[in-house]
Amino acid sequence: MPKQKTHSGTKKRFKLTGSGKVMKQQAGMRHNLEVKSSDRKRRLNTDQVMAPADAKIIKKLLGK
């Protein structure tokens, strides 16, 4: 049986930590940035851990 290919869109958007958690970039940092406060932009700019149910699907797409 052939190997499962990695989903190219998924590998650009998510990364796995050493312990196996899936990290993602938070939404809301693409536009209207002059309206948002510095505190809000700083909070949105950090990576966030995916929910376990969603992480299972992402790991499958990444081939892990």
Please describe what this structure looks like.
With 64 residues, the chain is of the alpha+beta class. The chain has a single domain, classed as Factor Xa Inhibitor. 38% of the residues lie in helices and 16% in strands. The chain contains three helices and three strands. It has helices at residues 8-13, 38-44, 52-62, and strands spanning 14-16, 22-25, 47-49. The chain has a three-stranded antiparallel β-sheet with strand order 1-2-3. A hairpin with a 5-residue loop joins strand 1 and strand 2. The chain is elongated, with a radius of gyration of 15 Å. The two termini are 17 Å apart. The mean pLDDT is 95.
Determine the number of helices (DSSP H or I, runs of at least 4 residues).
3
Q: Termini, distance in Å? A: 17 Å
Task: Specify the structural class.
Answer: alpha+beta
**Portion in strands:** 15-25%
Shape descriptor reads: elongated
| Neighbour order of strands in the largest sheet | 1-2-3
The proportion of residues forming helix, as a percent range, comes to 25-40%
Pick out the low-confidence regions: none
CATH C-level class: Few Secondary Structures
Average pLDDT, all residues: 95
Radius of gyration: 15 Å
Largest sheet: 3 strands, antiparallel
Count every beta strand, where a strand is a DSSP E run of 2 or more residues: 3
Looking at CATH, which topology would you report?
Answer: Factor Xa Inhibitor
Overall number of domains: 1
* Helix and strand sequence: HEEHEH
Under the CATH scheme, the architecture is: Irregular
